[in-house]
Write a structure and sequence with these properties.
The protein is an alpha+beta fold and 277 residues long. The chain has one domain (74-270): Glucose Permease (Domain IIA) (Distorted Sandwich). The chain is built from 8 helices and 16 strands. The longest helix is centred in the first third of the chain and has 12 residues, at 15-26. The radius of gyration is 18 Å and the shape is globular.
């Protein structure tokens, strides 16, 4: 009920303007006074961070913290697809008519989310990051980044109650779509913004979302080679990552409700693509 009331209240607010104001506040030195309370209230596990909570000079610095060496070993099995983030699996499955169910009566249209049409169905995993989670996004599978697209939008919160209440939430929110070529075919990683700071940055370009810029996209020429587990981008507050690939390329092993950790396997190459052992 509390979450539903928050969503209803936010429907009356200028969410993007509010998020920018919150972002400006989180980047000010005065926000350091909030870091200990943030850690306590949300139960942030600082034992995994590369510095103690007291060393972060702003709330944003705490939120975008890096982890200590070895905290997230990357599964190096040749056939593995790894989680790009820490969080929880919100939904997983194969699209039907281009959509996947997120909640009763709520579907995610992948073509609308990515901003391009698809001729076939897709396998999709939706991974939600709560405020306590590590908020850097990493590469789920080695390959080459070939293009990115920034899609402006609003900034609804993305916790489960909001997803149940707001129709088409992910396709309405600001997001960055990264397309990658892998040996198994294309892989899309969609970083979805959320209410709060609402800012996303990418490692491969200088895009900064929720900063008043128009939607834009670019092909990376030449493509940028990336390793599994390499940093892809950063959520400065929020949110959700959606992974999508053509059907039959992967057998997704993660289930809704599962806790995921960056670098751990969430899927494997389907046997027909691996060939004889």
């Amino acid at each position: 009920m509390k979450d539903a009331l928050i969503v209803s209240a936010l429907s009356l607010m200028p969410r993007k303007t509010g998020a920018r104001a919150m972002g400006a506040m989180a980047r000010r030195p005065l926000s350091k006074l909030m870091t200990r309370a943030f850690v306590r209230v949300y139960g942030v596990d600082m034992s995994e961070a590369d510095a103690p909570a007291s060393s972060y000079n702003t709330l944003e610095a705490l939120f975008t913290r890096t982890l200590r060496e070895g905290a997230r070993p990357i599964d190096d099995a040749p056939n593995a697809l790894v989680s790009p983030v820490d969080g929880r699996c919100a939904a997983v499955g194969r699209t039907e008519n281009g959509c996947i169910d997120l909640a009763p009566g709520r579907q995610l249209d992948i073509a609308k989310l990515v901003g391009q049409p698809f001729d076939a169905e897709l396998d999709v995993a939706v991974l939600y990051l709560s405020p306590k989670d590590y908020h850097r996004v990493h590469v789920a599978r080695e390959g080459e980044l070939v293009r990115w697209r920034y899609v402006p939008g609003t900034l609804w919160p993305v916790f489960p109650a909001a997803v149940r209440k707001v129709d088409g939430l992910f396709s309405r929110n600001e997001r960055v779509v990264v397309e990658q070529d892998t040996t198994e075919g294309p892989l899309w990683s969609v970083l979805v913004g959320a209410f709060g700071v609402g800012r996303i940055t990418l490692s491969a370009c200088d895009i900064v979302t929720n900063s008043g810029r128009d939607g834009t996209q670019a092909n990376l020429a030449p493509p940028v080679s990336v390793d599994r587990g390499e940093e892809l981008g950063v959520f400065h507050l929020g949110s959700t990552v959606v992974l999508a690939a053509p059907t039959g390329r992967w057998r997704l092993t993660v289930k809704p409700g599962d806790v995921v950790r960056m670098g751990r396997t969430i899927g494997t190459v389907t046997p027909q693509l691996t060939g004889p052992v």
